[in-house]
Amino acid sequence: MVDFVGKDILRVDAFDKALGSILYGPDQNIEGALWLLAKRSPYPHARILSIDTSQAETIDGVVRIFTAADIPGENSFGIIPVTKDQTLLAKDKVRYIGDAVALVAAYDLKSAKEAVDKIKVNYEELPAIYDPEESLKKGRILIHEKGNLLCSSRIIKGDIEKGFSNADIIIEREYRTSRLEHLSLEPEGGIGYFEDGRIVIIASTQNPHYDRDDVARLLGLSPDKVRVIQCGTGGGFGGKLDISVQGFIGLAVYHLKRAVRMVYSREESFLTTAKRHPLIMRYKTGAKKDGKLTAVKVDIIGDTGAYASYGLAVIMRATVHATGPYEVENVYVDGKMAYTNLPWCGAMRGFGVPQIAFAHESQMDILAHELNIDPIDIRLINAFKKGSVTATGQRLDHSVGIKESLYKIKEIRDKYSWSKKKGERLGTYIGVGVGSMWYGIGNTGVPNPSTAQVELLPDGSAILYTGAAEIGQGSDTILLQIASQRLGIAIDRIKLVRGDTLYTTNAGATSASRQTYISGNAVMDSIDHLEDILKAEASEQMDLPSSELIVKDGKIFSIKDSSKSIDIFELVKICNKNKVRVIGEGRFDPPTIKLDPETGQGVPYATYAFASQVSRVEVDTFTGFIKVLNSASAHDVGKAINPKMVKGQITSGVAMGIGMALMEEFVPNKTKSLKDYYIPTSMDMPEIIPIIVEDKEPTGPFGAKGVGEPALIPTAPAIINGIYDAVGVRITHLPANLERVIGELLKKEGA
Amino acid sequence: MKGMKKELITLRVNNEDYEIFTYPNKTLLEVLREDLMLTGTKEGCSEGACGTCTVLMDGKPIRSCLMLAVEAQGKDITTIEGLSEDDELHPIQKNFIEQGAIQCGFCTPGMILTAKALLDENPRPTEDDIKVAISGNVCRCTGYAKIVKAIKESSK
Fold it and tell me: Which of A322, A558, A573, B59 is at 20 to 30 A from A237, Cα to Cα?
């Protein structure tokens, strides 16, 4: 009997990582590989009149310079099929500082840099737009021909006016968040070469099959002519979902048929990869005196920057989650995503939910203070329970652990008597804040299947084939644990083949906290099919109908007579002798219903994760410095396949949440290195108590849901609410950096 | 490269002597990664801010992206590849694995070498000592708690 689910199995990739032997994108090298470097736009918005590469081509070491004219296929890419608006190399115009206009291939990086400087691009500057609300005003210059509105999303439930007329109290506030950088420590990088009539690209990525398809599209090839292999990926957080080096590598290999490599500098990574969308969120929340919510009206304007990337997904997710994990009868949410001439925004851990949770949780905190209700109690009064109906009209029938998560953090808060008090040093005050969240697992109201295969080998081992990218979150280990438990074979007897488009099938992106639930289920399904194959063979061998057979402990038994059995690996040997591979094909697509375009009604996700966090913060009123002292986060993950790794994710999310709450802000035209973009270090970390809540999801593998993004989401609200508790100022624009905190403190004093 | 000549430099890395014919303006990091193929040492920011390029020089942690290779001549350099002996993991590596201190793994080599330098100097560090020691090595994945715990375990 094997027991691998619910156990702290050591990560299968940790050994190579501890040794430093795993190869990440920038580590990929082939003797003689050419270096690639892009020439990029210095203007936020300009028409390209001409590009002259003649002088650059004469530089020693330069092999070839590519422009848009060299792109044989569709010069447009983007992760969402209906919004592929980004050019690999700009054709007519550039839309942000950093848009690529040409690509140099050279024997060494220094020659490539020299050539990039010598490429002459003649631009006609155009007026640029830096504000999403400006962008949507009539008569503004168009950033894209179709207009400056990328997309909109609306959720309507009940009667919003009636909801407000029934309210005893109405709170109206505006919240803003900043552009954020993922700052995976590994910069984007990879290598490519030509082999067996195919373009092979080895790169760090969150989504090898999407990469393959979009590179093939750029090159006008069928997808089977491109092979993408995911190498060691040093963090993603959404930033490696869009293609970066892959397109350039593909283009160069297409023309040169030789090995090339490309690695982004940190500055290039800052300037030219996706960012988190800054959102402006205007909330109007109505409640009864007893704290019960009656209406929530939200207006969201997002800035997607120059290109669409995941903008559509972010605005949909933000609108769907705008109520927070609470029952609200009357809801009206309107979201718009606008183009600007700023660096483009895409997916970043949570897809708009960390932003919207900051807003809805600030509203809940204001209500709690105004109505003099404990902040945890006001959440308990409103929290979803089994049978609750969401703003999109979805009935939550199972695995709704929000209340349990609130009870858990209440226990911790009360056990340690965390409460408002003066700090030890003069001018410091301590406060306690609460944040809750919900998060739909998988993509919003669209099919997002995963596939997998499991094969048995005659030597008693197995192979798991998955396209699911391991980016540090741990899917390799989790999927192996699931396969191991379901197969009844020890984890070290299962080989993993992962993230190679030649040998694995599409698992969808490592995003939306979806791989445990969706790819985990695909693995379960593949083993179901594997057992069907075994039963069919056993039926012949044992001369019994398949329906009378069961698989248990590595054997197939007759239901009627348990003395009749056959070892599954004996069956594998027989099958293999007959040239039949024992391989089960698995697939899972979470059941969802597309949202109605007018009302947003539908079933956006098959299941949701829930979480609550309480954080204790110290505010220094002389400097504006906030120190997070303690934090307890309770996450309903359905079932923790690997509790230690779940706790690792929770701690990880708290760290990133501290960055979002207190220090991280990408300032266009200024931020280009770690010297002007601060992320939390070991010194910024509080004591963290990670708590696992397991309200099993019946459709999940062993009851599991997901935790990757949820881990981050409640942190910023808990900290911001803690600041209010400590000193009575409410930060409505993230991050709560020194200047903003001091500014608000001075305003309060002035008042 | 115009106006610059390659020079022969000698480096002692992981107890082996290397003679490398390279440009004098190359950083130690570039020579380790590109000439010696020791890619366990990472390049995260190229300006000494992230700590992923940390190696030990005469036992002290340094940023190999901020030092020219020629300056490292005559010194003992240890990279992550030199930490384990005959495939036997160093106790710090073992503890990083067992405590779950590794997620994406990109900060791991620099973090482990910084930990080694700390423990060599201060075999019984407090949790605060550890936090201070690794404060120049950023990690975007773990939230540091398990890294601190792994280093603490290694001090026992």
Answer: A322
